[in-house]
Amino acid sequence: MTTRDAGTAPPAHPQILSGAPVVAMACLAAGCGEPPAEPNGPADSARGSRAATCCPIVELRQYTLHPGQRDVLIELFDREFIETQEATGMTVIGQFRDLGDANRFVWFRGFRDMSSRSTALQAFYGGPVWKAHRAAANATMIDSDNVLLLHPARPGSGFALAARTRSPRGASAERGDIVTATVAPIAPADVGLVDFVEREVVPVLAETGAPVEATFVTDSSPNTFPALPVREGEHVLVWLSRFPDRTAHDRHVAALAASPRWREVSRTLQHRLTAPPQSLVLSPTPRSLW
Fold first, then answer.
1. For residue 111, how many C-alpha atoms fall within 13 Å in the half-sphere facing its CB?
2. Which of 65, 75, 158 is nearest to 112 (CA)?
């Protein structure tokens, strides 16, 4: 969420979580329940779904932090940077601890469109709250440029927030639910990939307990706020699932790994990605909305 002085370090490469291929590919399949809109450009129909879901434009932001600084940043963020960002017109969707990396902080924020994104970011980063706390926030970070610009893959596949309530300022109770987010690099021309996943993979996931709650693809619009870099020239599918607790998540992973049907289809799936997927297992902070 930061803007730094000119000369920001280059974007970090996303860390690929280690593990057996079947586990990594389980994360891929979990998010591809329906065909995405064209991954190489804007999706007008997906952006028209704001009435049902948030938001037409979404940033997935992954920060690499100095050791021992994640809780410092989370306390500052939850106290100072939620309502003040939303006052400018953006939506702070969710913020998370990465359970696979003690020095990674992950969060999502959403916008109505690229024009309002520019306006909102200028208002926040030029405003008094960021100016008062940016030094403390930036001091926790090694890198804040690992950012994907996304839009919903299909109408209704964004974040459903209408029934969700944010905890008040000062809330500290830890949540037990687990969110998984998967970033799968794809070839834009492989339009049949999602058809394959829907036909062959999604039924196995349904049997093993991995519901998908949101799915996104790369938005290729020009970055309307260049002070905050985004990863350009990449094409990805990103999807998210939620589990009531870590036990439910682990049970799903074990069931999928034991599935003979999954072992068969995952071999084909692996060959159709342009790189291994990044798999994030996330714990929401006390004030995360999603």
1. 21
2. 158
Classify residue 288: in a domain, yes or no.
no
7 has a pLDDT exceeding 70: no
Q: How far is CA 13 from the centre of its chain?
A: 15
Question: Which structural domain, as residue segments, surrounds residue 105?
Answer: 21-161+177-283
Separation between Cα atoms, residue 215 and residue 27, nearest integer Å: 12
Report pLDDT digits (tens) over 35-72.
333 333 333 333 333 346 899 999 999 999 999 999 99
Q: Is residue 170 part of a domain?
A: no
Show the DSSP H helices in the chain as ranges. 21-30, 44-47, 70-80, 83-86, 114-125, 128-138, 192-196, 202-208, 246-257, 260-272
How far apart, in whole angstroms, are the C-alpha atoms of residue 228 and residue 148? 11
Residue 169: inside a domain: no
Q: Is 8 a domain residue?
A: no
Q: Give 197's DSSP letter.
A: I
Written as six digits, the tokens of 53 are: 């879901």
Q: Which residues sit opposite 242 in a β-bridge?
A: 179
What is the rounded average pLDDT for all residues in the chain?
83
Looking at the chain, the number of H-run helices and the number of E-run strands are 10, 8
pTM over 0.90: no
Number of domains in the chain: 1
Closest to 80 in 3D by CA, of 46, 131, 13: 131
Q: pLDDT tens-digit profile of 109-125?
A: 999 999 999 999 999 99
